[in-house]
C-alpha cells in the first residue's frame, strides 16, 4: 500500500527477516524498554518465527503484518490483530531509531487504521502501549484516539512492570481525524 511519496507498507514476509533482525539489533536502546522482541540475544530464527506468525494470521484474515518502507528502506513494522467477530482490531508498531522524528509512524498507522475501517469494515481500533512510552502515545494523540484507561503494572519487559495505556477510536467517532 502506497501511503504517500515517501512511505509504503508492504507485507512483512520471509524476504525481510534479515533486515528486521538488523533493524531491531541496531535500535536496542530505543526499542528495548517497549518491545519484547528487542533483546541483544535475539536470534535470526526468532525473527523467522515472528514473521511466520504474522504471515499465518494474515493468511487466515486475522492480521495485517506490514513492514514500513521509507524512501526505499525498511524502517520499522506496523501491524494489526483483527477480531472480526467483535468488529475490532489492535494496532501495534515500532520504528528503528534512525527514522524517528519524521512523522513516518503517524502516516503508517493512519493508513492501517483507514484500511481497518474502510476496507475491513471494523467498528473499533485500539492502540496499547506503556504509559511512559511518550512517542507511541503521541502517535495516538495525533490520530485522534481517546485514552480510555490505564491498566496498572500489566506490561512486563525485562522484569520491569509498566502501566499500559489503552486508546480507542470508533468508526462512528465524530470528526474522525483520519
From TrEMBL:
A Gene Ontology molecular function term of the record: protein-N-terminal-alanine acetyltransferase activity
Domain of life, per lineage: Bacteria
InterPro entries documented for this protein: Acyl_CoA_acyltransferase (IPR016181), GNAT_dom (IPR000182), Ribosomal_N-acetyltransferase (IPR051908)
The entry's keywords: Ribonucleoprotein, Ribosomal protein
Pfam families cross-referenced by the UniProt entry: Acetyltransf_3 (PF13302)
Domain N-acetyltransferase as annotated: residue spans: 18-174
One CC-aspect GO term: cytoplasm
Protein name: Acetyltransferase, ribosomal protein N-acetylase
Originating organism: Sanguibacter keddieii (strain ATCC 51767 / DSM 10542 / NCFB 3025 / ST-74)
Top-level taxonomy: Bacteria, Bacillati, Actinomycetota, Actinomycetes, Micrococcales
Amino acid at each position: 500500500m502506497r501511503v504517500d511519496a515517501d512511505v509504503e507498507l508492504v507485507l512483512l514476509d520471509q524476504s525481510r527477516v534479515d533486515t528486521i533482525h538488523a533493524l531491531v539489533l541496531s535500535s536496542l536502546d530505543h526499542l528495548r524498554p517497549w518491545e519484547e522482541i528487542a533483546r541483544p540475544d535475539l536470534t535470526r530464527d526468532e525473527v523467522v518465527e515472528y514473521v511466520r506468525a504474522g504471515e499465518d494470521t494474515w493468511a487466515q484474515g486475522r492480521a495485517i503484518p506490514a513492514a514500513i518502507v521509507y524512501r526505499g528502506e525498511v524502517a520499522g513494522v506496523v501491524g494489526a490483530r483483527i477480531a472480526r467477530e467483535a468488529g475490532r482490531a489492535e494496532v501495534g508498531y515500532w520504528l528503528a531509531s534512525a527514522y524517528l522524528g519524521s512523522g513516518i509512524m503517524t502516516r503508517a498507522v493512519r493508513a492501517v487504521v483507514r484500511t481497518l475501517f474502510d476496507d475491513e469494515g471494523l467498528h473499533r481500533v485500539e492502540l496499547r502501549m506503556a504509559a511512559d512510552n511518550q512517542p507511541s502515545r503521541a502517535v495516538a494523540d495525533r490520530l485522534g484516539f481517546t485514552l480510555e484507561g490505564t491498566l496498572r503494572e500489566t506490561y512486563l519487559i525485562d522484569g520491569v512492570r509498566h502501566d499500559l495505556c489503552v486508546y480507542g477510536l470508533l468508526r462512528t467517532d465524530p470528526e474522525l481525524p483520519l
